[in-house]
Design a protein that fits this description.
Length: 202
């Protein structure tokens, strides 16, 4: 790209010009690299879900919006059942593949405006755009069912079935991120104590 800038004399006559040359390829490369860096800063590299730093930022923003503009949303805490046993039996490489498969199932079955994040270990936290607990429960049940019907086959032909326990809750006006996550986490442990592979949305 060439940009020309005229130079005027005292009588405003053009007496010269400066030509500035820019390489569009360089600008496009810089844009691509910046976009890739942004993705790396917000994404968990193993699962391609959002990372915990981005979740904290997004969740605090959503809580502020909920308080100022009465914009409801729900949070789901999802834990892979018996994940330690999978790691102990088949190894961490298989465990990582199961994490990726579950993450992909979650990412593929929520709206684009929803956030799927890896909270840590085998846990995921989802921020879901819904108006009420009933809709949140429907989404949680759909995700539970999708994971349950998927499976992972290892090299020796063994098929490993995967299930998840899900706890969920809607944001309250007096919530902060810690109280919201803690409530969803508590409901998730209720689901585990009730037998696993189920949802507790309260």
């Amino acid at each position: 790209m060439i940009k020309t800038m005229p130079i005027h004399d005292a009588a405003q006559n053009i007496v010269a010009a400066i030509e500035i040359f820019t390489d569009e390829r360089f600008r496009k490369q810089m844009y691509k690299e910046n976009a890739e860096l942004k993705d790396k800063l917000r994404t968990n590299p193993l699962t391609q879900a959002a990372n915990r730093i981005f979740l904290d930022f997004h969740l605090n923003k959503r809580i502020e919006e909920a308080k100022k503009f009465s914009m409801p949303f729900g949070v789901l805490m999802i834990d892979i059942d018996h994940f330690k046993a999978v790691n102990d039996t088949y190894g961490h490489i298989v465990g990582d593949e199961i994490l990726k498969k579950v993450a992909n199932s979650l990412l593929s079955n929520v709206a684009k405006t929803d956030i799927v994040s890896r909270w840590g270990g085998e846990e995921f936290v989802l921020v879901i755009d819904v108006d009420n607990k009933e809709d949140l429960e429907k989404i949680a049940e759909r995700l539970r069912s999708v994971v349950m019907t998927s499976s992972f086959k290892i090299d020796d032909g063994t098929t490993i079935g995967v299930t998840v326990s899900i706890g969920g809750t809607m944001v309250n006006r007096d919530d902060d991120s810690a109280s919201l996550i803690a409530r969803a986490d508590g409901h998730m442990y209720d689901a585990k104590r009730s037998g696993r592979n189920r949802c507790q949305i309260k």
